[in-house]
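[User] I wish I could look at a protein chain and see how it folds. I have put the entry right below:
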Amino acid sequence: MNLLYQSTFAEALGWSLVDSLWKIGVLWLLYILFTANGKKFTAAKRYSVAVLILGFSGVWFLWGFVQNYRNLIAGTQIQSAANYFQLHLLNSLPSGGNLQVAVPFLSFIYLLSVAFLSVKFIVAFFSGRRGLHSQLYP
C-alpha cells in the first residue's frame, strides 16, 4: 500500500478524476442550455452534440491528467479546482477533511473498475461473435 501513496501516476490520476466531476458538470449544464432541455433540436442533433461534449470531456480529462502529472514530476503544486478546494476549504473544517489520503485509493478503484469492465466487454464481444457464426445454415 505504501507504493500506492508514493505513486505519482496514482496521485495525478486521482486528482484528475476528482477534478473531472466539476468539469463534466459544467459541460452538462452547457448542453442543457444549448439544447434548451430537448426542445430546440431534433433527437439526432441532440445526440451529436452529446457525443461531441462527451469527446471533449475525455480530452479535457486527459489534458488535466497530463498537467497534473507534469506538475507532480516537477515538484510544483497541482493546479486544479479539487486541490484548491482541498487546500482552502476542507483544511479549515474542524475535522480537517483530507482528500490527499483518498486520492490514491480513488485511482486504484478506478483502475480496477476499468480492468473489470474491459474484461467483461471482451468476453461479451467474443461470445457474441461466436453466437453470430454458430448454427448458420447455407
In short: Helices lie at 2-5, 8-35, 43-74, 81-88, 99-133. The two ends are 58 Å apart (CA to CA). The chain has five helices and no strands.
